């Protein structure tokens, strides 16, 4: 079983890496990009029977800094 955890900075938190990507895209001639938010995807290979609640606990304790980041879990 796999789980994908999508971690993004919360709205209102400055994203300097996203801003650098937005600026670079403009420099490459890609117009119309008004903003970029960069995040990460963590893929977990889980033992059968691992629950979404267990993955949520992993996120709360390690995978996401819940003060400034939000996360979304997809179980497959």
From TrEMBL:
What GO terms describe the biological role, i.e. biological process, of this protein? Answer: 'de novo' IMP biosynthetic process
- The primary site where this protein sits is cytoplasm
- Which pathway? Purine metabolism; IMP biosynthesis via de novo pathway; 5-amino-1-(5-phospho-D-ribosyl)imidazole from N(2)-formyl-N(1)-(5-phospho-D-ribosyl)glycinamide: step 1/2
Q: EC number(s)? A: 6.3.5.3
Stored InterPro entries:
PurS, PurS-like_sf
Q: What are the entry keywords?
A: ATP-binding, Cytoplasm, Ligase, Nucleotide-binding, Purine biosynthesis
Q: How would you classify this enzyme at the top EC level?
A: ligase
Reaction equations catalysed: N(2)-formyl-N(1)-(5-phospho-beta-D-ribosyl)glycinamide + L-glutamine + ATP + H2O = 2-formamido-N(1)-(5-O-phospho-beta-D-ribosyl)acetamidine + L-glutamate + ADP + phosphate + H(+)
Task: Give the highest taxon in the source lineage.
Answer: Bacteria
Q: Where in the cell is it found?
A: Cytoplasm
Q: Give the CC-aspect GO terms.
A: cytoplasm
Report the family membership: Belongs to the PurS family.
User: What binding partners and quaternary form does the record give?
Assistant: Part of the FGAM synthase complex composed of 1 PurL, 1 PurQ and 2 PurS subunits.
Q: Which NCBIfam families match?
A: phosphoribosylformylglycinamidine synthase subunit PurS, PRK05974.1
Q: This chain belongs to which protein, by name?
A: Phosphoribosylformylglycinamidine synthase subunit PurS
Protein species of origin: Puniceibacterium sediminis
Q: What is the lineage of its organism?
A: Bacteria, Pseudomonadati, Pseudomonadota, Alphaproteobacteria, Rhodobacterales
Which gene underlies this protein? purS
């Amino acid at each position: 079983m796999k789980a994908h955890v999508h971690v993004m900075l919360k709205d209102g938190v400055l994203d300097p890496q996203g801003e650098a990507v937005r600026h670079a895209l403009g420099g490459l001639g890609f117009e119309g990009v008004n903003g970029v938010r960069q995040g990460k995807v963590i893929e977990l290979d889980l033992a059968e029977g691992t629950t979404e609640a267990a993955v949520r606990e992993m996120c709360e304790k390690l995978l996401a800094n819940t003060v400034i980041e939000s996360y979304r879990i997809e179980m497959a």
